[in-house]
Design goal:
Strands 3, 4, 5, 6, 7, 10, 11 and 12 form an eight-stranded mixed β-sheet that branches. Strands 1-2 form a two-stranded antiparallel sheet. A two-stranded parallel ribbon has the order 8-9. The protein is of the alpha/beta class.
Length: about 300
């Protein structure tokens, strides 16, 4: 520890005990050495910091100001030392992540897998929820980190940019749109849809655009995952609106076509959210920093 930090720690101890001699004992210093450090602090401040009297010392107004700053500096230094110790011994603990289906299907598995291979002592609890549920879960403290669609309300949360994806229209090979390469919103809405459950960002955006065009949304079936959407689309039950990158394996193995959607909102942003970055544990902050790196 540097001499300046030792002097600040001594000053805090003296202020807490109301005595230079008691502060010296707490910091394992001789009284003469402690007195010299206090005198040097006052000389650097060019102001008296303590008022000496028979029963000990009292802080001057300048002393109270220094005490507040000293506590802040020492707390930050102690936290930094603890974090560095954690890194030296390997990051440990459990980090709770809640994310929407799109992020889990497209981005998180590879990133989390890579991180855990580098930090075998750390565990991650990953839960899938709708974007709105992600915001509530993080806001209530039930998750450390959230990943959600960028247009989701996140009152009171701190957000960081994460990834972008593109929505596309998935149709079966026997569907009337199967020979097309792209489709506009009005034409898409003329067909029956297989949708992921109510409350998801995809469900919400379909309802929003249908309302804007004043046409009914034709929901033929609600299901619980992207994979089931693709299976039902393959069977000719309807069409699906899904993140293109999330269904790469299905497009390779199933009788499906993926059409580009002519709509500006088809390009979506996803964000990371936390209650307060400064309050995260070392493990959670390490995961957040790793997730936040550019793709």
């Amino acid at each position: 520890m540097s001499d300046e930090l030792k002097s600040l720690r001594l000053f805090v101890a003296v202020a807490d005990r109301g005595s230079i001699s008691e502060g010296a004992k707490r910091c394992h210093l001789a009284l003469a050495a402690a007195s010299k450090r206090i005198t040097e602090l006052e000389a650097r401040a060019r102001l008296p910091l303590l008022v000496r009297h028979a029963r000990g010392v009292l802080l001057t107004p300048a002393g109270h100001a220094l005490l507040a700053h000293a506590r802040t500096v020492l707390t930050a230094m102690d936290r930094m030392s603890a974090e560095l110790d954690d890194f030296r011994h390997g990051i440990t603990g459990v980090v709770r992540i809640t994310a929407n289906a799109s992020a889990i299907a497209q981005f998180l598995p590879a990133q989390i897998g890579s991180f855990l291979r580098r930090h075998p002592g750390l565990k991650i609890d990953l839960q899938e929820r709708t974007s709105a549920e992600v915001a509530k879960t993080v806001g209530s403290g039930l998750a450390d980190i959230g990943v959600l669609e960028g247009n989701t309300p996140v009152d009171g949360l701190e957000c960081l940019p994460y990834r972008e994806d593109e929505l596309a229209v998935v149709v079966g090979l026997r569907h009337p749109l199967a020979r097309r390469r792209r489709v506009d919103v009005a034409e898409m809405l003329r067909h029956d849809h297989i949708v992921v459950r109510e409350g998801t960002a995809l469900y919400r955006v379909l309802h929003t655009v249908a309302d804007e065009l004043r046409v009914p949304l034709k929901v033929r079936m609600q299901v619980g995952s992207f994979d089931i959407v693709c299976r039902m689309v393959e069977e000719g039950v309807g069409i699906g609106l899904l993140p293109r990158a999330a269904i790469g394996p299905q497009l390779q193995t199933m009788r499906l076509r993926c059409l580009r959607l002519d709509a500006p909102w088809a390009r979506r942003k996803h964000v990371l959210c936390v209650r307060r970055v400064a309050d995260l544990t070392v493990a959670a902050r390490s995961v957040l920093d790793d997730l936040g790196r550019p793709a």
